[in-house]
Amino acid sequence: MNRVQSRLLQAPSVTLLLMWMVIPLGLTLYFSTIRYNLLYPDRTGFIGWSNYEFFYTDPAFWPAVVNTLLMVSGILTLTVVLGLAIAILIDQPFVGRGIVRVMLISPFFIMPTVNALVWKNMFMNPIYGLFASISAGLGFEPINWLSDWPLLSIVMMISWQWTPFAVLIFITSLQSQDQEQKEAALLDGAGFFSQLFNLTLPHLARPIAIVILIQLIFHLVIFAEILVTTGGGPGYQSTNLTYLIYSQALLGFDVGVASAGGVFAIILANIVAILLVRFIGKTLTVA
Predict the structure, then answer these.
(1) Which one of 67, 152, 170, 232 is separated from 55 by 20 to 30 angstroms, measured CA to CA?
(2) Residue 233 lies in a domain
(3) Residue 210 CB neighbours (<10 A)
(4) How far is the CA of 180 from the CAs of 82, 97, 171, 174, 190, in angstroms?
């Protein structure tokens, strides 16, 4: 098969992928430059950068950007650290290890909306939630998590759901680790932390990079948990870019401004992804 034939075979999938990406992006760019409010569909017209200026000067814009970055960094930190700790723990042989692994992975298969409802009503409710019962039992005043610590609450519930994903990747990688190296390290007197930093973490460098990159794609567009629990509040304390765009499009009915917000979100996602890929690439090179 020559190069021309291979290109012809690849053409349908490449064309479909380009249409899947280019057409929505093109429409988003188009709508971001026109006046288009769903309440007044007849009052459309080209307005240039006005939608971008309006979105950029929105009082919620910078809080949304900061909240987006804080959410992503907090979730990535918790899921990687907890996932690594749990994976190393359950990698050791013990009775019932298979059942424990299944139970640890199961939260990942829960839908985001259900996950948010469970945390909102069963754990974080200030009256009858589990955390309130524990606080009352210890003699402390129950915390209204979703009102007092909204951003932390979102990070906790999403980290709980995504930690099993990290555990699954890490435990699979740990099973491929060279056992002779670990035995040799034990014979040389290497302790747990020495093995962790000199053997385990270098071996898990690529899996950690995969976990971070995949989660980055999903966590930059967190929406369901915010909609179900805090509604972006109190104020703008848990509003991220995705929820702000939703507010402009479906609560304010302004498709033009929402499209401008979508372009901002794309730019931010690409900047974060590029910086993260470079950082991970340097880390892997050193490892």
Answers:
(1) 152
(2) yes
(3) 14
(4) 26, 23, 18, 13, 14
Q: Which domain holds residue 79?
A: 59-286
Q: What does the DSSP 8-state code read for residue 188? A: T
- Our measurement of the distance from residue 238's CA atom to the centroid of its chain's CA atoms, rounded to an integer in Å, reads 15
List, in sequence order, every residue forming a beta bridge with 254; answer none if it has no partner.
Answer: 37
Kindly tell me the sign of the dihedral angle through the C-alpha atoms of 93, 212, 108, 72: positive
Question: Looking at the domain assignment, is residue 50 inside a domain?
Answer: no
Closest CA to 52 of 284, 266, 286: 266
125 falls within a domain: yes
In this structure, are residues 145 and 153 in contact, taking their beta carbons and an 8 Å threshold? yes
Which residues are CB-neighbours of 234 under 8 A, at least 6 positions away? 147, 150
Calpha distance 76→58 (Å, rounded): 28
Q: pLDDT tens for residues 155-200? A: 999 999 999 999 988 988 887 777 666 667 666 666 767 777 777 7
| DSSP bridge pairs for 46 | 34
Q: Based on the structure, what is the number of domains in the chain?
A: 1
List the CATH number of the domain containing 247.
1.10.3720.10
121 assigned to some structural domain = yes
**Residue pLDDT, tens place only, 108-160:** 888 889 999 999 999 998 888 899 999 988 888 888 999 999 999 999 999 99
Q: How far apart are CA 130 and CA 124, in angstroms?
A: 7
Q: Which residues contact 277 (CB under 8 A, 6 or more apart)?
A: 213
Please say whether the dihedral angle defined by the alpha carbons of residues 198, 200, 204 and 208, taken in this order, is positive or negative: negative
